[in-house]
Design goal:
By secondary structure, the chain is of the alpha+beta class. It contains nine helices and six strands, in the order H-H-H-H-H-H-H-E-E-H-E-E-E-E-H.
Length: 222
């Protein structure tokens, strides 16, 4: 008994969140992770691989790290790149005219607001409507520039971008189709999915200089 007490007293005092579920506490202790500073040396993926860890516990750890000015190793870069990759996959699916691939990037109850204000609700409707669009029209391809990726929580992110469209058979964008896009992504079942994708015409009414500036910026991507 004395030996056990001596061993416990030699362990570093934990500064992990007190509200962590017991399975998460045991998982971290078993891996020798009892201090926030130690967690800043490992990645989120490594922590999630521990038996007993879940999304709620991971989010508690993120917040605790942030309060100390810390984060998981490579977290900011890797998470931001995940959202950018999701967005690029969306644009690629449109450009390749694959309705099923486009819809698969959304959560089951995901929503799309189109350039003209039309709406598609749910993965099945997105696939169905896009399938008809691709069958009936030669669609223009997207060029995009990401403005910002921001995490509202560990499980929800917002991406803002500007886009231009190159009509079929042409090599320049159509300025009238320039748009601002907003994507809301949610992390579910270990992966990121699109919850909402919104398109707004970049009309800049009464400010033609801003419209021209955006067009020139997007032309640099050609």
């Amino acid at each position: 008994m004395t030996k056990d007490k001596d061993h416990q007293s030699s362990l570093p005092e934990s500064d992990l969140p007190t509200g962590l579920a017991r399975p998460a506490q045991r998982a971290l202790a078993g891996a020798g992770l009892v201090r926030l500073e130690q967690l800043s040396r490992v990645s989120e993926d490594e922590v999630l691989e521990l038996h007993g860890m879940g999304p709620k516990a991971l989010d508690q750890l993120r917040r605790a790290l942030a309060e100390k000015g810390l984060s998981f190793a490579n977290t900011s870069y890797s998470r931001e790149e995940d959202i950018k990759s999701l967005y690029q996959s969306l644009l690629d699916s449109w450009n390749q005219r694959t309705a099923e691939g486009y819809a698969a990037l959304f959560s089951e109850d995901g929503n799309v607001v189109g350039f003209d204000g039309s709406q598609m609700n749910g993965r099945r409707e997105i696939a169905s409507q896009l399938g008809r669009i691709f069958a009936d029209h030669q669609t223009a391809r997207y060029l995009a520039k990401v403005r910002e990726v921001r995490f509202l929580t560990g499980q929800v992110a917002v991406l803002r971008a500007v886009v231009g469209m190159v009509p079929p058979g042409q090599n320049d964008i159509n300025p009238a189709a320039n748009a601002v896009q907003t994507l809301v992504a949610v992390r579910r079942e270990g992966g990121w999915h699109i919850a909402v994708f919104h398109n707004t015409p970049a009309a800049y009414h009464g400010r033609p200089e801003l419209a021209e500036k955006l067009t020139e910026e997007l032309r640099e991507l050609l």
